[in-house]
Amino acid sequence: KCFVWSVLVALHPVKRQANPERIHHYQQLEHELDTYLDGITFSVSLDNVNVYSYDSKLVVYPLYVTREEKDTHVDMLYMKDGNNSHYCLIRDLSRLVRSQITNQDNDLVVLALLTTLWHGRPTEQTQRRL
Predict the structure, then answer these.
(1) Which of 27, 100, 106, 114 is least surrounded, with the fewest CB atoms within 10 Å of its CB?
(2) Is the pTM value of this prediction over 0.70?
């Protein structure tokens, strides 16, 4: 159920001081995802979610990125060790991949849908064109 909890954490952020990793914040919201998760079986297969993973050198790469444009995108990190697997929420994809792309201090924007990288902030007009 780590997939469900990760989605709920993304949709209902809790202040860091309130221990957002504890599921009691989200248990009463679990029913909210029933419509969205209808047809998804657990354990979730990789073609059901936007998901990234990493290799032995800790280089992050996309396993699956949806082609559909949504108002809210939830990025997940998929980890596997032998027979155990786990999904966790990626709160900031740019932060996760920054060190493998650049050593500059300015902002880095990663547009996951297009797997496009921007140094600095793209303008709204540029984002619309993409």
Answers:
(1) 106
(2) no
